[in-house]
Amino acid sequence: MDRIVKVGMADLKVIVGDGILITLGLGSCVGIALYDKTTKTAGLAHIMLPSSKLIKNNQNKAKFVDTAVEYLLELMMKMDAQRKCITAKIAGGAQMFSFKGNASEILNIGERNVQATIDVLRQHNIPIIAQDTGGNYGRTIELHAKNGILVVKTIGHGVKIL
């Protein structure tokens, strides 16, 4: 039986070998799953916002894409992950509410989170090998450390294996 490690909102965790990292309720938030198949090191972040640079209260590194990816990489490498072997899978970034007029672009935090995630991973030379983003529905994701599989569960949209 695999041990299950819960990752809360604005949280991140790293495990090695056996175990499953789970985060619930990804709406506009993005789940960033990093994996090194050579060492079976898995890291999962549940980010809420695209950038720590626009917010004064930015102490929580797991809350923002820019700081979460950096911190996740740091923790994974402390557990012997090889940076050149790390790949990413991302999920979430939904538009949970509809807005009228020009406000929709500013308020579409899900889309901004996804774009920031893609940009930050690119800056770190981490390839995104799978993604399930957008839409208008929430997701729960599970990252399996033994094989790097990301299971995306949605109400009304079934289960996807990435």
From TrEMBL:
Substrates-to-products reaction catalysed: L-glutaminyl-[protein] + H2O = L-glutamyl-[protein] + NH4(+)
EC number(s) given by UniProt: 3.5.1.44
Gene Ontology biological process: chemotaxis
Record's keyword terms, sorted: Chemotaxis, Hydrolase, Membrane, Transmembrane, Transmembrane helix
Alphabetized CDD domains for the sequence: CheD
GO molecular function: protein-glutamine glutaminase activity
Parts of the chain that traverse the membrane: 12-35
Function: Probably deamidates glutamine residues to glutamate on methyl-accepting chemotaxis receptors (MCPs), playing an important role in chemotaxis.
UniProt record similarity statement: Belongs to the CheD family.
Protein name: Probable chemoreceptor glutamine deamidase CheD
Organism: Caldicoprobacter faecalis
Gene name of the record: cheD
